[in-house]
Design brief:
The structure is a homotrimer. With about 150 residues, chain A is mainly alpha-helical. Chain A contains four helices and no strands. Helix content of chain A is about 75%, strand content about 0%. Chains A, B, C: Pfam families: MAPEG.
Chain lengths: ~150, ~150, ~150
Amino acid sequence: MSLELLTLNNPVFKSFTFWAGVLVIKMLAMSLLTAIQRFKTKTFANPEDLMSPKLKVKFDDPNVERVRRAHRNDLENILPFFAIGLLYTLTNPSAFLAINLFRAVGISRIVHTLVYAVVVVPQPTRALSFFVALIATAYMAVQVIAAAAF
Amino acid sequence: MSLELLTLNNPVFKSFTFWAGVLVIKMLAMSLLTAIQRFKTKTFANPEDLMSPKLKVKFDDPNVERVRRAHRNDLENILPFFAIGLLYTLTNPSAFLAINLFRAVGISRIVHTLVYAVVVVPQPTRALSFFVALIATAYMAVQVIAAAAF
Amino acid sequence: MSLELLTLNNPVFKSFTFWAGVLVIKMLAMSLLTAIQRFKTKTFANPEDLMSPKLKVKFDDPNVERVRRAHRNDLENILPFFAIGLLYTLTNPSAFLAINLFRAVGISRIVHTLVYAVVVVPQPTRALSFFVALIATAYMAVQVIAAAAF
């Protein structure tokens, strides 16, 4: 029984796997987005990265820093989701609820990136997308604690 | 046999799941702690976050930066623990040792946050809590490498 | 069948476990490398860390910041690999391909650290090691998405 939980026959695991894959691609894309901004604004953090002897290391370009803040926000929120989503799957939750929680995290984190680092949108769009993913992740963590504690 | 390792019938997995859940909640709380400090000190990193046209973006408030350093330290230490704790569980370790290692990581990381970002306590309290978790995580990693290499 | 995937009898899981353990040790070593640079250059970020009343908090030492950038790059690239490597293992991939992908990530991330934070080497060494790991991780993520989507 429990063994079936980590196979693609389990719709909860299948959904978790799909969204984890999508969010890994999204996170890796942040590195490329940072690189694009670095070349556009000629903002390089290491002497060995400078393309021309006329350039100097630079740390405070607002476009580069914006992408880096969005990327760090991913580290803070998506990476804990990877751990807790897998453990939540292993608690054998209701498929309907679990799949919609994974969707909520996946979609809201993509929206978060778009409105933070691609096309800046006035608040509270970013705050809302941030809190949808945070609340869904926290809910899963509470369920996991409850399953393990009793 | 191996299949039983990832069920709550396995006390090692049960303990890992509990502490992983607790530490995910702890990490998510860092975002709220950062937000509280940002509003208290009116330190916002993005123009679209400014609450009033009189405010300017600000990056160097010591209270905000302290919480952010504590949060980053979590990323550096708790997230690798999530990966290695699961793999260590799959090596079927002694339950007594494994459960106490997970407890050591969980409690010392909570202490680390409290003395770093909530009530600042003189060193070496933070250094000690940091090293307890680091050594426990490194020990699990060495056991995992040994199990996989031979 | 699926249950066997997460045992050391599965050469793919065995290889993933080995490299995950090695990369956790490598990541934890970054904290020690940072500490060494902090003491060498007397660069401490918190008032309670200052060893002498003559010292002041300091944030911009280039040697400390270099190690911190290398460490952050690990968070951005190695931590997503831990999640996707496990899910990729659960899709039951070709052992030959999977083991070489894990090796590629493991070795290229060690090279990345060496040429970034230990002995600085001119580009494109660091860029190449970065992209080898990124492309291998992205490939696994695409395979995981494909397995889950169809």
